[in-house]
Amino acid sequence: MVEQFHVQIPATSANVGSGFDALGIALTLFNDIYFSVQPEYDGMKIVVEGLGKESISTVFSENMVCQAMQIVADTVGKPLPGGTLTLVNRIPPARGLGSSSAAIVGGIVLADAMLEAKLSKADMLVIAAKMEGHPDNVAPALYGGLCASVMNEVYTITNSLPIGDDLSFVVVSPEVEVSTHDARQVLPHVVDYGQAVFNVSRVSFLVTSILTKQYDHLALGLEDKLHVPYRIQLIPHGEAVLQAAMDAGAKGATISGSGSTLIAFVTEDGNRVLEAMVQAFERNGLVSTGYVLNCCNKGAVIL
Question: What is the predominant subcellular site recorded for this chain (predicted)?
Answer without folding.
Answer: cytoplasm
